[in-house]
Amino acid sequence: PIDRAENARAARPFPRGLLDVPGSAFLHAAFGTSLLTPESVILDVNEEFCRMLGYDADELVGRNLLEIVHPDDHGLIDRIHGAMRRGELDSDQTRRLYVRKDGETVHAMAGVTAVRDDDGQLIGIIKQIQDISRRVRAERELQESLARQRVVIDSLADGLLVFDADGRIRVTNPSAEDILGVSGRQLRARLQEPLVRIVDEDGQPVSRDAYIHLEVLRTGRPMGGITYRIERPDGESGWVRANAAPLVWPGGAGAQLLAP
Known about the structure:
- The chain is of the alpha+beta class.
- It has helices at about 1-10, 25, 45-55, 55-60, 75-85, 135-155, 175-180, 185-190, 210-220; strands at about 30-35, 40-45, 90-100, 105-115, 120-130, 160-165, 170, 195-200, 225-230, 235-250, 250-260.
- Strands 7-6-11-10-9-8 form a six-stranded antiparallel beta sheet.
- The radius of gyration is 29 Å and the shape is elongated.
């Protein structure tokens, strides 16, 4: 509650210069903000800091910060605050894990700023934290989704290549590597010369400008049923039927070439 936080603040003096903003601005700041001694003991907290971690202000004041930091991050906190005490660091911003009163873990982007006196001695630390738990969960879900998609892509009997907007190969699957006789690492490398020779049904070499995926990138329209003969680096050759369709994802567009 606000009254308890204000009473706790009034009951103890701050180190000179530690807080150079009006009390109300500190109390109602959008980010969770705490004031610490050089030894990481909590002097004061604002409403948002309490809300994020589920404590009242008087439950936090006087405790060491490490009591509410996840054990996995204790070493990181010790290193950062130790560097501040030694005068080696004035600010830092990293992801940290905190533990709420109810035991739930909170992912936060934490920034710390050293407050020094005129002689450069550390007199306090200002810490601000922003809850990014929702973003972290979304990132994790995205990674899990991509992993599931990767399993599906790798299990396809058809060869699949995904190109970016510049025509460079970004994704391959094992079937495509087997068809072309080239490793995925080589296919994804930026090479000046093609690793395979492509010939049309009349036996004429297909120029790079006429590759199906580049045509799809230019027009934005799918193409299908194009027959090519692939001449592999090992001297073997075979016929494939290629289909390509545009793909759109955040940050740009691409084309996929499906070569059964």
